[in-house]
Specification:
The protein is an alpha/beta fold and about 325 residues long. The chain is built from 12 helices and 14 strands. Helix 2 links the parallel strand 1 and strand 2. Helix 2 (about 30-45) runs antiparallel to helix 5 (about 150-160), helix 4 (about 130-140) runs antiparallel to helix 5 and helix 5 runs antiparallel to helix 6 (about 170-185). It binds manganese (II) ion.
């Protein structure tokens, strides 16, 4: 069922125990939205639990009240409602979350165009650049008090999912909402420094490796980079380090699509695909491999060796660009 923010707010009023969750391998939008929603519901007097399958990666420890998010409990836990944020499919919540969370009422707020509307009530705004923006819009409509902690989490959600307000999904409304968040207490300079100016050196080593090994194909319209499990071991890379590396490849003049191949266990390869212009749709390209995401940023997981998948996907991507 489709719904509005006001209806979700209404449905949550009678719920005492509420679980707020988002997708596994969380990004800034997933975590910022989870924390903003958890803080909002706590301030309305609910008993709030916030989980993420993978907890909070260290690089997101700058988010105010980040410690509110824990990994799911081992035992099954009953809730009156589950609020799911930024998550296109049920499976993306992760196995442990799905095994432990029980509730008669599932509510979802998301902006993925590939969202499967799997909850009982679904507020999906695919034109929105971030789930954090849909939440902020709802908070403004419903006159919900935004504390500085709530505002910072929403600002981080929007800033990270728009590539610092650069992607074409960024609208005048995005800046109006950002302005409202700054008025509510975000210190732009200090907070941006925490978000983008405090990378571990380990990540720079990965970037160095990526730039040394970048490949250009399809008449230099595609830039790609592969990371093997051997590379991960020698560089000491953590899963959270890889995000954003691909954007360096996309930023090269003439490149229309960038792709990152990451070797996983069990002969699987994860691909992350980025588009530069609206003429190539990364989400529909990834859907042919069972993945999805957004027009400009999408991903999928494939079965096979990294060499074999690299060749196949690069060929099909080049075909797609023509
Ligand atoms: Mn998002």
């Amino acid at each position: 069922m489709k719904t509005t923010f006001a209806e979700i707010h209404q449905a949550l009023r009678s719920a005492n125990r509420i679980l707020v969750v988002s997708h596994a391998r969380p990004d800034g939008d997933a975590l910022g939205s989870t924390l903003a929603a958890a803080l909002w519901l706590r301030q309305e007097g609910h008993s709030v639990t916030a989980w993420n399958e993978d907890g909070v990666p260290q690089k997101f420890s700058y988010l105010p009240e980040a410690a509110l998010i824990t990994k799911p409990s081992e035992q099954v836990q009953e809730f009156d409602a589950i609020l799911i944020l930024d998550t296109a499919t049920k499976e993306r919540l992760g196995k442990k979350v799905l095994a432990s969370a029980r509730s008669p009422l599932w509510l979802a707020i998301d902006h993925h165009v590939s969202n499967e509307n799997f909850a009982d009530q679904n507020l999906i705004v695919s034109s929105s650049p971030a789930t954090g923006e849909i939440l902020a819009e709802g908070f403004l409509q419903e006159k919900i008090t935004m504390t500085p902690a709530i505002a910072c989490n929403l600002y981080a959600a929007i800033s990270t999912d728009t590539g610092s307000f650069q992607y074409s999904s960024t609208t005048a409304r995005t800046f109006e909402i950002a302005a409202a968040l700054v008025k509510a207490g975000v210190s732009v300079g200090t907070f941006s420094q925490a978000m983008y100016g405090s990378q571990p050196r380990r990540r720079l080593e990965l970037l160095r490796h990526a730039l040394m090994n970048a490949k250009f194909s399809c008449d230099d319209r595609i830039a790609s980079f592969a990371l093997t499990r051997k590379d991960v071991a020698s560089l000491g890379t953590l899963p959270e380090d890889t995000e954003g590396i691909i954007d360096q490849l996309r930023s090269v003049e003439g490149v229309e699509a960038a792709i990152f191949f990451e070797e996983l266990m069990n002969n699987q390869v994860r691909i992350s695909v980025r588009a530069k212009t609206l003429s190539f749709d990364a989400s529909s390209f990834c859907q042919r491999y069972g993945g999805g995401g957004h027009r400009m940023a999408a991903g999928a997981t494939l079965q096979g060796s990294i060499e074999e998948i690299g060749k196949k996907v690069l060929n099909e991507l080049c075909e797609n660009l023509k």
